[in-house]
User: What shape does this take?
Amino acid sequence: GLLYLAMLCFMFIQKAGEYLETYWDAIESLLDNQGLQVEEVEGQLKQHSMAAGFLCLGTIVLNLVCAHLSAKVMGYRWTARRTIMVTNIVGFILGSPALRLVDPAIALQRTGLMTVVQAWSL
Assistant: This one.
């Protein structure tokens, strides 16, 4: 997820000028006419997007270093097992409310669980 976010930040820098030109009226109303020009906002936008992208990349490196050091101390097998378990639990916690937002039949079809449910009902 962090790598995807970092790539989005870096790709956004390339298109920042186009987005500002397209949405300048809406942005200007949000800024409450603080007297900022498009060029000033574009410079700030590029600077902050670059910083956010590098922050995401730094976080990835830090996570990898922490996982490696944890594995060195506690063992790679234990660390891998716990990492997978936590990832699954977090995915379940975050995914459960998302499934309630859509029709259950559609959610089951999209996740591929409809065939499992049909097989159980036979």
In short: Residues 38-74 form the longest helix (37 residues). The chain is about 90% helix and 0% strand. The CA atoms of residues 76 and 104 lie 38 Å apart. The mean pLDDT is 80.
